[in-house]
Design a protein that fits this description.
By secondary structure, this protein is of the alpha/beta class. The protein has a domain of 204 residues: Rossmann fold (3-Layer(aba) Sandwich). The protein contains twelve helices and twelve strands. It has a seven-stranded parallel β-sheet, with helices on both faces. The protein is globular and about 55 Å long. The structure holds nicotinamide-adenine-dinucleotide and 2'deoxy-thymidine-5'-diphospho-alpha-D-glucose. 2'deoxy-thymidine-5'-diphospho-alpha-D-glucose (DAU) binds next to helix 6 and strand 8.
Length: 335
């Protein structure tokens, strides 16, 4: 089987590449990534010399580059991870989110049709459903109500996938997952930002009252779910993926400080994210019941394992946090 993985140098994409080589020998992988600030080939050091692995630096929205690739290779499946993924950045610079997340997806859909790819998996997000009150869960039929430019771009891509299934008969499926955590996550996202700031004895910026709720899932559990959906998901269906693991941001930050043995005085309340969604929570019964997906990680163990990963990979995150990221950090937090 030959897979095209887009965005394979990012957090979830690189974890997925590792999962393929660890669990599915014989599968070959072409990884297309434009290497934005979030793409890091260091994440893939251990696979780079494998005969079944090839990296191509290209933008998924670059139609001629994609034509060249798809006309040269026959892919059995495309898994589209490539995207601008950070909500805060979408608030200050929405345009690139439309280019990569919407136009990029549309180019890939055209290529999948033209070159008769058997399966297209669109990696979407629970953020397309908007925000929940204190109770209730997102199910696959919850109406789309995206609130940020990021989630609007992801919802737009989902609708394009739906249209290509309906109009052209493309064999595609969509996954919508909750917040991931684990190794190789860029330290602009809550968990790695808090871990690495605490390790540098820097302030931990908590937005608003810290009472927003997210449903955390280990990235490996997410990747296993994606593999199952690719193999067995019903064409045209959406599958929610989540950890059944809701945390208020503030409690999670305090938990990380406990693990790291650092004082709560590092917590600093900062201006809230504009349009900040209050609560996400996923009902994952469809993927559990239909495809037999199960969680491997329990959260306390997964979180400790992740903290340990950042302790063991200080050079990785120090490099990632230097340079252009410093400028972004100053602008975003004024700290
Ligand atoms: P990430 O920002 O860590 O990685 C994104 C990768 O895509 C990077 O390697 C980047 O270089 C690449 N990329 C961006 N634009 C590109 C383009 N135009 N062409 C080619 N490559 C491009 O993101 P992530 O957290 O790994 O998220 C991966 C996917 O999963 C995204 O589609 C995101 O919306 C979705 N998702 C993420 C989460 C989460 O918690 N991180 C949860 C649910 C869904
Ligand atoms: O739900 C899935 C989504 O999860 C993915 O689609 C996105 O790609 C991914 O970035 C993530 O989005 P969030 O906005 O939920 O993640 P983030 O890590 O940015 O923030 C998590 C929560 O923590 C959110 O309520 C905002 C808050 N936060 C975040 C940062 C970066 C803070 O309080 N302080 C911060 O500095």
């Amino acid at each position: 089987m030959k897979l095209l993985i887009t965005g394979g140098a990012g957090f979830i994409g690189s974890n997925f590449v590792h999962l393929v080589f660890n669990d599915h020998p014989g599968v070959s992988v072409v990884n297309v990534d434009s290497l934005t600030y979030a793409g890091n080939l260091e994440n893939l050091k251990s696979v780079v010399n494998k005969p079944d692995y090839r990296f191509i630096k290209a933008d998924i929205a670059d139609r001629s580059a994609m034509e060249e690739l798809f006309s040269a290779e026959q892919f059995d499946a495309v898994i589209n991870f490539a995207a601008e993924s950070h909500v805060d950045r979408s608030i200050t610079e929405p345009e690139i989110f439309l280019k990569s997340n919407v136009f990029g997806t549309q180019v890939l859909l055209d290529m999948a049709l033209k070159y008769k790819v058997d399966r297209f998996v669109q990696i979407s997000t629970d953020e397309v459903y908007g925000s929940l009150p204190a109770t209730g869960y997102f199910v696959e039929t919850t109406p789309l109500a995206p609130n940020s430019p990021y989630s609007a771009s992801k919802a737009s891509a989902d609708l394009l996938v739906r249209a290509y299934i309906h109009t052209f008969g493309l064999n595609a499926v969509i996954t919508r997952c909750s917040n991931n955590y684990g190794p190789y996550q860029f330290p602009e996202k809550l968990i790695p930002l808090m871990i690495t700031n605490a390790l540098e004895a820097k302030q931990l910026p908590v937005y608003g009252d810290g009472m927003n709720v997210r449903d955390w899932l280990h990235v490996e559990d997410h990747c296993k779910a994606i593999w199952l959906v690719m193999e067995k998901g019903r064409t045209g269906e959406v599958y929610n993926i989540g950890g059944s693991n809701e945390w208020h941001n503030l409690d999670l930050v305090k938990e990380l400080l406990t693990i790291l043995n650092q004082p709560e005085s590092l917590i600093t309340y900062v201006k809230d994210r504009p349009g900040h969604d209050r609560r996400y929570a996923i009902d994952a019964s469809k993927i559990r019941n239909e495809l037999g997906w199960e969680l491997k990680y329990d959260f306390p163990a997964g979180l400790r394992h992740t903290v340990q990963w950042y302790l063991d990979h200080r050079t990785w995150w120090e490099r990632v946090k230097s340079g252009a990221y410093q400028e972004y950090y100053k602008k975003q937090y004024n700290l």
